Amino acid sequence: MKVLITRLQRYSTNTNDMLQKVLLSLFLVLFLISCKKDPSADEITFKFIQLNDVYEIAPLSGGQYGGLSRVAHVRDSIMNVNPNTFMFMAGDFLNPSLLGTIKVDGERLLGKQMIEVMNAMDFDLVTFGNHEFDLDEEFLQKRLNESEFQWITSNIYQVSEDGNKPFHIQKEDTLAIPESFILSIDDGNGGMVSIGFLSVTLPSNPKEYVHYEDVFSSASRTYESLKDEVDMVMGLTHLAVDQDQELAKQLPDIPFIMGGHEHNSMLVKEGNTLISKADANAKTIYIHTFTYNTKTKELKIDSKLFPIDEKIASQTEVAAIINKWTGLLDVKIKEVIDDPSEVIYRSDIPLDGTDSANRGIQTNLGDLITEAMAWSYDNEVDAALVNGGSIRVDDMLPNDLSSMDVFRILPFGGSILKVKLKGKLLTEVLDFGKANRGTGAYLQRYNIGVDPDSGVWLIGGNKIDPKKTYTVAFSDFLLKGYDIPFLTPENSDILKVYVPNEEEKAKDICKAIILYLKSLTTES
Ligand SMILES: [Zn+2]
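ok -> structure tokens follow
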């Protein structure tokens, strides 16, 4: 009898779950129908679904938000009501991600997982974000070749021996990525509208194989080439919002720009132009409903920010692809930690994992990482240093931090070395980090500060003595000399490099941080 009750209870929970999801889908449909508003014969209604800055294919924060299979479900539901529904990605999706660093058949995924998911989701138009060019040329080309959706860029070209040329997709034929794209929408009742798209990306991750043309002149050239061919020109951009606003000032007849890069949602009006950005990692998506009067040429835009959370069902086909990849990730992570989703740290102020902060200032996240590095050697070090470029999540972290988040912060992992070095070299290292502010060689520090009056480096509040020997915890990457060329074990001012063994906390930097954060929670 007891068993039966339990079963019944379980059944009813499942039914409730299902009921909730059905009701939600129903609500979604009703919501969409209500938005349709009885269009007159001259009006055509169409919908754009906007995503930007999506690095993760699976939901984040223990499933609380995001997840591309949920987005696919929302898109399908909308499309069932209005077939003229189109989906856009406004840049930044191939990198960084933890999954992207995992090796399959000896090669890092580097966005392969994202392309596979996006192919299944049937995106209509995507553009480059700055992070697409984190990938080396060879890998970006592989991702382009794997993609089955339409790309566009008006200002980015590939550097070649014969000069700058459009990036291309190599399938049976070579498909050049165009500077513009025209979307023709037909409502089946004689209503038609054609929309020209231009697309520009900010040049913030310069690479030798990439040529960036000026954002504004490229946009205006493309606008001029499009405007007489179409009913209206819109933007799909990846810029800082003040650049989007400047673009709107320079091209005031553009009614609408879908952008990205900021990671937080916004809807900004600049003159006659509406600029929209959704939250990163599909925490939200934008659903834009357009009503265009083909007679009066009037365009109405109704933009709704739509949260993607655990109440939304998953589209099965996309979910299956995501599960295949996350299953791989779980296996790799469980080699290091038993429960990757366990919340190990709660903070009122979110930890700042953004690239711009960690490559330019001492951050609260940099504090925690370097404290953990010192802790991994029982604080028997004078200081700890990690390069800001190791921090790859480029996002604000959730207030409830899980073990998985730590792996997302430092996806390349590595160990922590205990190094004895002369004060002279330590000062040179710190100066080098400071001089390279804005790049990955900028250093996050523990127990090292700057004297506000003289500007000299202090260790534990005292000036660094060039002749004295200090013990400093370094990430092993830093001692390879990639970021700081003279910082290698061969340098004569390095007296000893201690490499931790398998049993020590310092062996794995992610594990060290997880254990350190857990120790803080137990103490308080
Ligand atoms: Zn970006």
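The chain is about 30% helix and 25% strand.
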